[in-house]
Design goal:
Shape of chain A: globular
Largest sheet of chain A: 5 strands, parallel
Number of helices of chain A: 8
Largest interface: A-B, 44 and 44 residues
Radius of gyration of chain A: 20 Å
Low-confidence stretches of chain A: none
CATH topology of chain A: Rossmann fold
Distance between the termini of chain A: 31 Å
Oligomer: homodimer
Number of strands of chain A: 9
CATH class of chain A: Alpha Beta
Order of helices and strands of chain A: EHEEEHEEHEHEHHEHH
Helix content of chain A: 40-55%
Number of domains of chain A: 1
CATH architecture of chain A: 3-Layer(aba) Sandwich
Strand content of chain A: 15-25%
Structural class of chain A: alpha/beta
Strand order of the largest sheet of chain A: 2-7-1-8-9
Chain lengths: 211, 211
């Protein structure tokens, strides 16, 4: 088996509970590293620099783009979001499965560059529940909530680009499902080409030997 | 989530240990049903009618083909092998994940008819180990072993048609991996189209309501 880690891209509607899910996954199992995105948006109450996001100015962000310091970046709700490259590459080399919480534009860019990346989409159990969660958060204005819901409507059109969906109903079950999916990804054919070639070679040697 | 079971096709070189692996899986976890194939080959010592295989004559087999009683069938090492349809369909409807232990020709036919089927290929840790296991079985002549090894060489060319490979080194680990892979298959996009359409519809209703 290959010993490099896998890139796991997690997307989902704002309010689907991705953040909580990811934190719980990393807490429950070893072998995961959570990539911290860089953004130009304002911190929400309770968000911590370097943990929730790296909060930077527009100028700092554009400087990172120029330096090729980002694995991918995209604009969403008029703010930049991006994935710092060095942390991800280091963790993958050490065999960690690295989780990137990014939206669809970024997800597709990652899949293009890293075809063995696994793309997951987190869904709420229903649209009603999604709205309830967004309102319950209490940190967004009605206008922002409406914007996020109509954005969810657009995002839903891209779900077929993903490999798996997870319905975030019960947190514990969901964490377990996520772990199973990521484990399974290690056994796909494209991630095991080296081993397959080795066995093919050995079998051919046997076939020659017999004659 | 969909409540119908999934078809799980397991192939692998003769001697890779598929049979033991499948039995252990069914014993360890609920929710699996093992399909029993029909064959015209002779029983090996210890094989049980209706459990290892349904052993039938060539005439009986061809009668089943005509009656459309088989999900797929193929010829391998001059013997017929096939999957009786009724058992599989009944189990899937009851929500069981049904395991079919069949070779590549059959596997591809199943995938064509049932695109959400999961195709697994069981590998020995090395070709040397494969030969050791075939010899250790003590039930086959040297000619048959050589034939099986050269058949393995051909089969190895088709591995890219499969979804996952499992390296059968330690039985317990392997059973656990197999279970993870099958669980993960339940969360793929094509298996959840109904749910996705439901959410899309709900979100569109919200968007309309806002205006």
């Amino acid at each position: 088996m290959k010993h490099e880690g896998t890139l796991i891209v997690v997307s989902g509607f704002s309010g689907a509970g991705k953040g909580t899910l990811m934190k719980e996954l990393v807490k429950t199992y070893n072998n995961y590293a959570l990539s911290v995105s860089m953004t130009t948006r304002n911190p929400r109450p309770g968000e911590v620099e370097g943990e929730s996001y790296f909060f930077v100015t527009k100028e700092e962000f554009e400087d990172q783009i120029e330096k090729n310091g980002l694995l991918e970046h995209a604009c969403y709700c008029e703010n930049y979001y991006g994935t710092p490259r060095s942390y991800v590459e280091k963790q993958v080399k050490q065999g960690k499965d690295v989780i990137l919480e990014i939206e669809i534009q970024g997800a597709l860019k990652i899949k293009e560059k890293y075809p063995t990346a696994v793309l997951l989409f987190v869904m709420p159990p229903s649209a009603k529940e999604l709205r309830r969660r967004l309102i319950g958060r209490g940190t967004e204005t009605v206008e922002v909530i409406d914007k996020r819901l109509s954005r969810a409507c657009e995002e839903a059109e891209g779900i077929e680009e993903y490999d798996y969906i997870i319905i975030n109903d019960k947190l514990e079950e969901c964490v377990c499902q996520l772990h199973e999916i990521i484990r399974a990804a290690h056994y796909t054919i494209p991630r095991n080409t080296e081993f397959i070639e080795k066995i093919r070679g050995e079998l051919k040697e046997f076939a020659k030997g017999e004659k």
